[in-house]
Amino acid sequence: MVDIIRTNSQNPEFRDLVRSLNSDLAKRDGPDHPLAQFNTIDNLNYVLLAFINGSAIGCGAISEYDLNTMEIKRMYVSPEVRGRKIGVKILSELENWSRELGGTKCILFMGSKQPEASRLYENNGYRLIQKYGKLKDIHDSICLEKEL
Questions:
Q1: Can you tell me the mean pLDDT for 134-145?
Q2: Which residues are CB-neighbours of 111 under 8 A, at least 6 positions away?
Q3: What is the rounded end-to-end Cα distance, in angstroms, of the chain?
Q4: 3.40.630.30, 3.40.1190.20, 3.40.1370.10, 1.10.150.120: CATH of 2-147
Q5: Whole-structure pTM value
Q6: Residues 53-89: tens digit of each pLDDT
Q7: Could you tell me which of 65, 40, 63, 58 has the C-alpha nearest to residue 117?
């Protein structure tokens, strides 16, 4: 059974999972990919951790983008438990938390070399949008949104 807890970015288990995520992204995109500059976690107040048998195996976070929009960040599931719909559960909980905080929409960005993540978001109602903010000039970034 997967247990989900709410925490913040100071949680050491979240920080460990983010190190694994960053390592995975560096392998896919290269260590100096321009998206990496947007992946800081110092001030994330809304973080989820997924556990199986007391071990942290997945994470995700949201941050306020504007008054009605939450941005999904740092979604990750450990490779050894992928394919068990844990990402779907984390995403659903992030959307629920976004609604609780007054959000009516979620947005996110990702690199183009993450087909598993792309399928996860597409299968859960996210659609491609124009690149936003500082992402406009990053050629292989993908931006998505979902109305809640």
A1: 86
A2: 25, 28, 29, 33, 35, 140, 141, 142
A3: 26
A4: 3.40.630.30
A5: 0.94
A6: 999 999 999 999 999 999 999 999 999 999 999 999 9
A7: 58
